[in-house]
Fold this protein.
Amino acid sequence: MSASENEPGDRLYFFILLSADNSPEKQDLARDAGADAFLSKPLKIEELGARLKAYMRLHGLKGWMQSRQNFQEERKMAQALRFQQRILEGELQEAATYVRSLLPKPCSTPIAVDFQFLPSKYLGGDCFDYYWLNGDQFVIYLLDVSGHGLGAALFSVSVQSVLRSQSLPQVCFDQPEQVLSALNSRFQSNDQNIRYFTIWYGVYRLSTQELVYASAGHPPALLRSLNSEKPVQYLKARGKPIGLLPETQFKNSYHTVSEASILYLFSDGVYEFSLKSGKTWKIEEFIQLITNSPALFAWSTEQIIQEIRAKISTGEFEDDCSLIRAQLG
């Protein structure tokens, strides 16, 4: 068997043929058989040592060249990854700008509304809207799609488009339970599209000061009133997130809004983050902030967000953060 048979690709041995016949023909046969060097008898130790040292230098050079090649390949891969990361970040920024462009404008009369929309680094599925159905009924809602990235953002925009265009057949858009039921039928998850979303949807009638609302797994809205026995009302309603179960039922809830009342809608990104102490802030602590701060009643959403951001360990929200403030009474 020749020395090269069944030989691994990166061999770590040096084959020297020792022979009394040092003719050129014999040396050629030895090299053809896989010999790295040819020595004639009688063996000279100095010559053997020189050949071994030469092999060791050559092997070291090959190892250095292989390491150099590996380094260059890793460097190219790292550069390619950084390039792809920059492209992805650019696409996420463009998507966030697009979502922001679709959001409503702040308004001041007869219902004053302002908001904060802070998409996370990875962009989530927050989206919201408010508008007049007619001269007396005002729609306001906030939704949060599961997951992050372009898929979640575009999904939230498609839901907003359906609601804004009122393209749900045979639905009265002043009836939240009908709206959520129709959305649940329209956006059911399947094996190809595993998406669901939470939503709080309400309609305020200006003439009667009545608020009708329904929820699908979303955090409760908060209604803070100066002229009420209960300064803060939790406007929550039962209902699983849209898209999980086709048989989910939704039901309207009603509340008469007193004078000087503020409605707050928010996504879970407002309160799900790590504090500087290492603990996790919770919705109860956010509600306590809204409830126990008298001066906060007059604060804009920007001021509220600044107050909350000061508590975050990193100074930035970990998830999409949306907060809407609507002065109804």
Summary: The radius of gyration is 35 Å. The first strand starts at residue 16 and ends at 19. The chain is about 35% helix and 20% strand. The helical segments are 24-32, 45-102, 150-164, 176-186, 283-292, 301-309.
